[in-house]
Design brief:
CATH topology of the largest domain: Polyamine Oxidase, Chain A, domain 2
Radius of gyration: 20 Å
Low-confidence stretches: none
Mean pLDDT: 97
Strand content: 25-35%
CATH architecture of the largest domain: Alpha-Beta Complex
Number of strands: 19
Number of domains: 2
CATH class of the largest domain: Alpha Beta
Helix content: 25-40%
Bound molecules: flavin-adenine dinucleotide
Distance between the termini: 14 Å
Order of helices and strands: EHEEEEHEEHEEEEEHHEEEEHHEEEHH
Structural class: alpha+beta
């Protein structure tokens, strides 16, 4: 089959790996400029060189044997390393979290900057509409966050659209700050401190370079309460909270940005993956299982198993 996958995050790419291996012709479409999805890495130019921030997922754990084997392959390829700061079973992408998605995407036909606006049927074929035109496919896989699923699938499967709408995500305000000197704190991370859900010295993760850089995430409750706040107000508040959490003045700020993830940590729909063989339409993504990188990968693999069964 010619299979179109909407969303080239970890879920879409883990499906693509298996489907390509099974002989299908796979094309992925992603609205972003480059690889990462919610595992992306941001670069910010500073007076002390380029600073790097994992501004989505911070680390991941590997518990299932198949996923552990996959992570071992990423490690062997230099795209992942353990990060004991976050736990005995914690891993990160190297040199940035996006390295994993970047590596997987390199093996596939991915069209970046290509937002699929709608999907429709033309006889037995699917038609995917985007700003530059229309693509035809025998099968369509939707691998995007739950909140973005319903618009695409509602005309074809009301039950799946309803399931996605009922599976809501938690937001996360994220502040990325590069400093002109080391932040005087003995640890490289902290959790659950006032408005802060998690903060980490990004530049201390394995394989990182550049100036001292920190990622500070608002807790889900604080982020939801302040979702419509101005980015500058969020930066001021979360950096003040970081200063009081570590109990000292922060060094000079070289560069700082805020990012609002409206859909950061997914809910769980209580499925693994969904495939309708008569429509040739499938769904995968973390939201079917739960808000973890391992879930996104497992959902993609499970969907590929259903398609090839
Ligand atoms: P995504 O990575 O969201 O990929 C979906 C892709 O679809 C995106 O690239 C998007 O651009 C694209 N897309 C959407 N709509 C369209 C469209 N219409 N057309 C084309 N493309 C489209 N997980 C952990 O395990 N540990 C953590 O510590 C952790 N922390 C997190 C912190 C934050 C702030 C965030 C945001 C996430 C965190 N996660 C964490 C969750 C983890 O990042 C996700 O579970 C995982 O990356 C989801 O992968 P996915 O492929 O399902 O979705």
């Amino acid at each position: 089959m010619k299979i179109a996958i909407i969303g080239a995050g970890l879920a879409g790419l883990s499906t693509a790996d298996v489907l390509t291996g099974a002989g299908h012709a796979v094309a992925l479409f992603d609205k972003a400029r480059g690889p990462g999805g919610r595992m992306s890495t941001r670069r910010i130019e500073t007076a002390q060189g380029m600073a790097f921030f994992d501004h989505g997922a911070q680390y991941f754990s590997a518990r299932d044997a198949d996923f552990m084997a996959e992570v071992a392959r990423w490690e062997a390829a230099g795209a992942a390393a353990r990060w004991p700061v976050a736990g005995a079973d914690a891993w990160v992408g190297t040199p940035g979290m996006n390295a994993i998605v970047k590596r997987l995407a390199a093996d596939h036909d991915v069209r970046w900057n290509c937002r699929i606006e709608s999907i429709g049927r033309e006889g037995a074929l699917w038609q995917l509409t985007h700003a530059q035109g229309v693509e035809a496919a025998d099968a369509v896989i939707v691998a995007v966050p739950a909140e973005q699923v319903a618009d695409l699938v509602a005309p074809h499967c009301g039950a799946w659209a309803g399931l996605a709408q009922a599976t809501t995500s938690q937001p996360c305000w994220t502040v990325m700050a590069a400093f002109d000197a080391r932040v005087d704190f003995s640890a490289d991370s902290l959790r659950n401190c006032g408005a802060i859900g998690w903060a980490a010295r990004n530049s201390a993760k394995p394989g990182r370079s550049g100036p001292e850089s920190w990622v500070v995430q608002g807790s889900p409750a604080w982020s939801a309460q302040h979702l419509e706040d101005d980015g500058d107000a969020v930066i001021a508040h979360l950096l003040a909270e970081l200063g009081s959490a570590i109990g000292c003045d922060l060094p000079g700020v070289l560069a700082v940005q805020a990012h609002r993830w409206r859909y950061a940590l997914s809910g769980s729909a209580g499925h693994t993956a969904l495939w309708d063989g008569s429509l040739r339409l499938g769904l995968c993504g973390d939201w079917l299982i739960g808000p973890r990188i391992e879930s996104a990968w497992a959902s993609g693999r499970a969907l590929a198993g259903l398609v090839t069964a």
